């Protein structure tokens, strides 16, 4: 099969197009999927570059770093085995099944749940892996995954549109769930033009919350299509003044970086900060007095339960959320797609098609 294979940590040159890579076969409890489209996400860039390693303190550049620790360069702080086919957001059809899987599933249209859980202990976060990281993913013509991670979907959306949901939207839903967002909240979303940011806007609105999006002014028209109540510039000089009378009860952040203290300073007493990324930089300054004197709650959000993807499929099928598809690239142009993704040339999600 054709596959884009990541050969090691480093720059875009580490992704090598292979024209005759071995096609995987489904083991017991697994399915073989003919990939129709696969989304591109920050986790693909960060794993390839080695940014998750604690030896790296810079923002996510997408390029090679001088030093990447060999023991913790993945989302889970563990080593990674190369060569590796990345890509977590597959949409496709099941074409074969392994032992113990109902053959009636052949032909099903599915999207993938990226979280690989221990079937005997699915709630244990310490026994999880990620599709495209701990096992090969979807930047190829075929891929295998656990049968329970191939989630059936019935939708009129295109394959490319469906390939935008899994990683970005499940990340966003996990963040909002950890922060217990309800219709009583006003949620501030930095980086609202990105895949997770746009998903946060839609999913917070679905919960009935008031949403204030932050994005570069050139992308405000695209962000407006997602339905936020207010749109602000990406980094207002005086955020409190820019917010006016708005009372921020939740900050849902995947940006971090030097602007981060401004986000914390505008939280109301008893407010919640939820985080699942730090694309502008992982090292931030925190005045602990702000944290404890204002009774703030901080929640990190990475591993999610299987119910999240099932809920997202229900939202998709009911038309309650929509895809934010920015661009599609052929598989052989994955390096160009990542370069565009890193440069933030597009608003929304980028998808590659084998």
From TrEMBL:
CDD domains: MDR9. Residues 10-352 form the Enoyl reductase (ER) domain. InterPro entries: ADH-like_C, ADH-like_N, ER, GroES-like_sf, NAD(P)-bd_dom_sf. The keyword NADP applies. It comes from the Bacteria. Coiled coil: none annotated. This is Zinc-binding dehydrogenase. It comes from Ruegeria atlantica.
């Amino acid at each position: 099969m054709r596959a884009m294979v990541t050969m090691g940590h480093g720059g875009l040159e580490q992704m090598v197009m292979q024209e005759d890579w071995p096609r995987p076969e489904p083991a017991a409890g697994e399915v073989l999927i003919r990939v129709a489209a696969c989304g591109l996400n920050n986790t693909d860039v960060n794993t390839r570059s080695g940014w998750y390693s604690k030896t790296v303190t810079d923002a996510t550049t997408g390029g090679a770093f001088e030093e990447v620790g060999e023991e913790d360069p993945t989302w889970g702080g563990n080593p990674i085995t190369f060569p590796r086919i990345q890509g977590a957001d597959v949409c496709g059809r099941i074409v074969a099944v392994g032992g113990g899987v109902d053959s009636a599933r052949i032909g099903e249209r599915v999207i993938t749940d990226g979280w690989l859980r221990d079937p005997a202990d699915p709630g244990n976060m310490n026994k999880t892996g990620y599709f495209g990281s701990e096992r090969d993913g979807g930047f190829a013509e075929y891929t295998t995954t656990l049968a329970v991670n191939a989630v059936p979907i019935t939708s009129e959306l295109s394959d490319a549109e469906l390939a935008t949901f899994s990683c970005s939207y499940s990340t966003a839903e996990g963040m909002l769930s950890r922060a217990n967002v309800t219709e009583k909240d006003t949620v501030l979303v930095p980086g609202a033009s990105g895949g997770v940011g746009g998903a946060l806007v839609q999913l917070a609105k679905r919960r009935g919350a008031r949403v204030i999006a932050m994005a570069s002014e050139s992308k405000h028209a695209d962000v407006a299509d997602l339905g936020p109540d207010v749109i602000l510039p990406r980094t207002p000089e005086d955020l409190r003044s820019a917010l006016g009378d708005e009372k921020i009860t939740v900050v849902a952040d995947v940006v971090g970086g030097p602007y981060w203290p401004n986000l914390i300073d505008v939280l109301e007493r008893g407010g919640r900060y939820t985080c699942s990324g730090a694309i502008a930089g992982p090292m931030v300054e925190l005045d602990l007095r702000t944290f404890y004197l204002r009774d703030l709650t901080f929640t990190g959000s990475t591993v999610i339960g299987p119910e999240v993807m099932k809920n997202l499929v229900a939202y998709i099928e009911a038309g309650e959320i929509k895809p934010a598809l920015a661009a599609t690239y052929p598989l052989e142009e994955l390096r160009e797609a990542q370069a565009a993704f890193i440069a933030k040339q597009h608003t929304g999600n980028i998808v590659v098609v084998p």
